[in-house]
Design a protein that fits this description.
Elements: E1 2-8, H1 14-23, E2 28-32, H2 38-43, H3 45-62, H4 78-102, E3 106-109, E4 111-116, E5 119-123, E6 129-139, E7 143-145, E8 158-159, H5 161-164, E9 173-177, H6 181-193, E10 196-200, H7 212-225, E11 228-230, E12 234-239, E13 245-250, E14 256-261, E15 263-266, E16 270-272, E17 286-287, E18 290-291, E19 304-306, H8 317-331, E20 346-348, E21 353-358, H9 361-366, E22 371-377, H10 382-387, E23 393-399, E24 405-412, H11 419-427, H12 432-436, H13 447-456
Parallel strand pairs: 1-2, 1-6, 2-3, 6-19, 8-15, 9-10, 9-15, 10-11
Antiparallel strand pairs: 4-5, 5-6, 7-16, 12-13, 13-14, 17-18, 20-21, 21-24, 22-23, 23-24
Family: Belongs to the class-I pyridine nucleotide-disulfide oxidoreductase family.
Pfam families: Pyr_redox_2, Pyr_redox_dim
Subcellular location: Cytoplasm
Length: about 475
């Protein structure tokens, strides 16, 4: 019952920490109260991408004639689409089970809680408690849908993202509150299924963390697709009774509008799972509702570490995985550099997709940089035109002083597959001309990166 490392939680932070620790020669156990893979694999990243792919295929079918293909009466089979997404999630969860066996990682089923130094108490489904010991304990308990008092979730008609993935029927109407990645992706999916969707956002643009030009492009694309968008607006209350929900929304003029919908989806962020995991018992220091850690994810209690959504930083799966590797390698005495949080890519898998890294135009100017901006529209891309997907653009922001890349902002088809080039460029401090002189294959969407860099220095060829 003693291990070198116990990880509480098996999401993209927890399972990566466990596998890397095993590779480094540690004996490892993972405590998990639900499905292996955590929220990301089972109720987040993976199943939503399955739903979005189904929506994309349906849209291709509806527009098949644009490609010279005849398809009649294409319609969604909502139950089959949901079933497929669950099947994909189950397969990925089983993949984690295989990786754990391959790496000799013990799985302990139940709820894990710190009770004393180097000690974890696990309560199983039957309520039985067992004590396990480890030299090092990594907390990777993740997060859940954030609940607002004026939008009380009942899990049936007023729901969070988890229920949105498993509805037993396609709703006729839905109001989505919050237009971050989760809200925007699910708004796009349900609209594609034929649901009448209203997307409500408190900030001036949807996807408010993105560059303003990108956000406005997605807003135009959503409206073109039939999604009703209200920005600078807030849901004041939801009235439930027989029939449709009545949603009172304060619009940008400060007036109350009443909208009706079968479902209200609250997508206003997440809340970290920091309750009942023993933080208080060990006096682990907190900071603004999250666990306080150093650059290597050590808490103030020796031997206890925290990663992922319960610490400060972007609440993203790939961030949790990177933190896991950094944390475990430091535990093992392997030299590792702290994560550069200014160089974390963000992706939203709507149609069109959105991807970004680094400073947007507003932030770059606020930071005092003199900047050069290069944009290349996909309307000028041969590959985008051939694919029938010329919405969007690449926007690159360079530091005029040394021509290094400050930020990259992309909106269009497959841009989530292209952003890593920009992350690497920023990591190695590549200059604009490093990008311009890197030969990109033709025809591809990615050559728009080269063209955007060239546009910033008046060297662009195709516009």
């Amino acid at each position: 019952m003693k291990y070198d490392l116990i990880v509480i939680g098996s999401g993209p932070g927890g399972y990566v920490a466990a596998i890397r620790a095993s590779q480094l020669g540690m004996t490892v156990a993972v405590v998990e109260r639900a499905e292996l893979g955590g929220i990301c694999l089972n109720w987040g990243c993976i199943p939503t991408k399955s739903l979005l792919k189904s929506a994309q295929v349906l849209e291709y079918a509806h527009h098949a004639a644009d490609y010279g293909v005849k398809i009649e009466n294409a319609a969604p089979d909502f139950d089959a689409i949901i079933a497929r997404s669950r099947g994909v999630a189950d397969k990925m969860s089983k993949g984690i089970q295989y990786l754990f066996k391959k790496n000799n990682i013990t799985v302990i089923e139940g709820h894990g809680k710190l009770t004393a130094e180097k000690t974890v108490e696990v309560t199983n489904a039957a309520g039985e408690k067992t004590i396990f010991e480890a030299q090092h304990i990594v907390l990777a308990t993740g997060a859940r849908s954030r609940q607002l008092p004026n939008i009380p979730q009942d899990g049936k008609r007023i729901i969070g993202y988890r229920q949105a993935l498993t509805l037993d029927h396609k709703p006729e109407s839905m109001i989505v509150v919050g237009s971050g990645a989760i809200g925007s992706e699910l708004a796009y999916f349900y609209n594609a299924m034929g649901t009448k969707v209203l997307l409500v956002e408190f900030m001036p643009t949807i996807l408010p963390l993105e560059d303003e030009e990108v956000s406005k492009q997605v807003g135009r694309s959503f409206k073109k697709a039939g999604i009703n968008v209200m920005v600078k607006s807030s849901v004041e209350s939801v009235e439930s009774g027989e029939g449709l929900l009545k949603v009172n929304i304060k619009n940008k003029k400060g007036e109350i509008e009443v909208h009706e919908a079968e479902i209200v989806l609250s997508a206003v962020g997440i809340a970290p799972n920091v309750e009942n995991i023993g933080l208080e018992e060990l006096n682990i220091e907190m900071e603004r509702g999250r666990v306080k850690v150093d650059d290597y994810y050590r808490t103030n209690v020796e031997g206890v570490y925290a990663i992922g959504d319960i610490v400060h930083g972007p609440a993203l799966a790939h961030v949790a995985s990177a933190e896991a590797i950094c944390c475990v390698e430091h535990i093992a005495g392997v030299h590792t550099e702290p994560i550069d949080y200014s160089n974390i890519p963000g992706c939203t898998y709507t149609t069109p997709e959105v991807a970004s890294v680094g400073l947007n135009e507003t932030k770059a100017l606020e930071a005092g940089y003199e900047i050069k901006i290069g944009k290349f529209p996909f309307t000028a891309s041969g590959k985008a035109s051939a694919a029938g997907a010329n919405e969007g653009f690449i926007k690159l922001i360079f530091n005029a002083a040394d021509n290094t890349l400050l930020g990259a902002h992309m909106v269009g088809m497959n841009v989530t597959e292209m952003i890593a080039e920009m992350v690497l460029a920023r990591k190695v401090k590549a200059t604009a001309h490093d990008i311009i002189k890197t030969v990109h294959p033709h025809p591809t969407m990615s050559e728009a990166v080269m063209e955007a860099a060239a546009a910033a220095y008046d060297e662009v060829i195709h516009i």
